[in-house]
Predict the structure.
Amino acid sequence: GITFGLIYGLVAIGYSLIWQSMGLVHFAQGDLLMVGGFVAITLINSGVTNLFAVLPIVFIVLAVLGGAILHISYRHIPQSRGVTRIIATHGMSMVLKNAAVLIWGTNSFSLPDNFFPGKALNLFGVSIRPVYYWTLIIAVLLVVGLVFFLYKTKFGLAVRLTAYSYPLAELMGVNPLV
């Protein structure tokens, strides 16, 4: 339960950041997570079996895909057209789902048991598999990295300013759609 809660929490942080910075309910957010899972499975099936090699590649692929989606779909819709922007995210969600079916089919996949390094931990008589404690470690690192990014970088400052006030961000020279 904790593992799924952490994953849902990270997705919720993504929804919150997108809503605060762009005023957009991004219905394709979960589908991007799905694509990341399929990219990981594809990498593993092609011989990249190290967690620390797969994760950065998946993050890069999702960043490029997210940027492409922003520039292709959402950037050209004015901020004042909120409903149109929300419909565009729903459309992108449908595109991602159907593309996944075309590329990977309709079969379910799972990560191999030996994908996560380490052995099961025994805490208070409960055996915790590596997939669960690695999810905890990675989620904590992602949240710490996000906090560092938002509060210690100029781009993070621009994101926070855009979340605070879209017009003020534009007045200060920040392009909120980049």
Notes: The chain has seven helices and two strands.
